[in-house]
Amino acid sequence: MRVSLNEIQVMCRKAFEGMGFAAGDCEDAADMVGWLQLQGLDGIGALEKALGYLQREADQPFALRYEDSALLVIDARGQSVLRCAATAVELALGKALDSGQSVLRIHHCHNRLLLLGYLCRAAEQGMDVQARWGDARQVCIATFHAGNSRPELHVDERPCTRDAEQSITVAFSRPAVPARQQVCAQAALAQGFTVSEATWQRLKQLAEQVLVESSEASRRLGAGGGSDAD
Fold this sequence. Notes:
Layout (H helix, E strand, L loop, with lengths): L1 E2 L1 H14 L4 H16 L4 H12 L8 E5 L3 E10 L1 H18 L1 E10 L5 H9 L3 E7 L4 E6 L7 E5 L11 E6 L12 H6 L1 E2 L2 H25 L9
């Protein structure tokens, strides 16, 4: 089935809300999925792989392991990278904007491709960004040049070190040459995107959880049944 970018973002926002994401995080995560789709990186497919983790993780916090002026180390505790992506990237980008460079490391995380949608924002703010992650088969490298939110992707056919598995390392740096902005992919926006109908139905089911919860709350409280403390 084919859907528009707007339909993808609206459906994902509702689905993230149904999975327990905070309001602002819902918007960020939905924008990220749309961005991946726009770049030809199958954001819906990447999200489908993450759904099993995300539905189990609503109440599991991530942990800050180390922080200084140029380094931020996060332990995601086996969760999807989406659970800490917005906060971690914002903090690391702030360090890079202050000092010219920084490094973000997220350990024990899944679905690492999903982080790229957040990293493009750093490139749009004039930073060079390189993300590196891997597994027992290969190492993946995504490079964003300042001003260009489309990454260059490279796969090195060799295994990563054991301590780097289920981790991702991101380096932010201010370029010596001023950034030049890229042109948006208007063709993809006009044509829409092909997505799996089964995955779309699963997202709809998650989105409907929000409507069900609101209806039950309304029946319990009744019209005007709330209080200033609610």
